[in-house]
Design a protein that fits this description.
There is one protein chain. The chain is of the alpha/beta class and 136 residues long. The chain has a single domain, classed as Collagenase (Catalytic Domain) (3-Layer(aba) Sandwich), CATH 3.40.390.30. It is built from five helices and four strands; from the N terminus they run βαβαββααα. It has a four-stranded mixed β-sheet. A hairpin with a 6-residue loop joins strand 3 and strand 4. The protein is globular and about 35 Å long. The two termini are 21 Å apart. The relative contact order is 0.18.
């Protein structure tokens, strides 16, 4: 079972993901994916995600989500950083939907899914859409 630990302190209290939504995310992830361990999901500022992107990907720019998977660790299998401000900027509809999409996207990366090579994107995004539909 995948345990999700959310850190939302950079988000204004009234804009944070509700406990109900967090439970729905965890339920959907666990019904559609098979893995064991915890994933920490931290919402960060633009400056923090830019710093992480520069440090780990050598890209000096703001991005929406960064994922770090630890396949050899049986307890903490990954960390995810999400820029809430970038999520707000790129949301074409509901910010909540955009954030859920980024959370699921990050989880899939932690679990080894990718979209860089031809054919990978269809599998990953199809699964991502399926999980998000179960949540929203």
């Amino acid at each position: 079972m995948i345990g999700l630990n959310f850190e939302q302190s950079v988000i204004e209290t009234e804009q944070r993901l509700s406990d109900d939504l967090l439970r729905r995310i965890e339920l959907a992830v666990n019904s559609d994916l098979s893995a064991d361990g915890d994933i920490s999901i931290r919402f960060v500022t633009d400056s923090e995600i830019r710093r992480l992107n520069r440090m780990y990907r050598k890209k000096d720019e703001v991005t929406d989500v960064l994922s770090f998977g630890y396949p050899d660790n049986k307890e903490n299998i990954g960390d995810i950083a999400i820029s809430y401000d970038e999520a707000v900027r790129q949301a074409s509809g509901s910010v909540e939907h955009e954030v859920v999409d980024l959370v699921v996207h990050g989880i899939l990366h932690v679990l080894g899914y990718d979209h860089e090579k031809p054919g990978e994107d269809k599998e990953m995004f199809s699964l991502q859409d399926k999980i998000v539909e179960h949540i929203i």
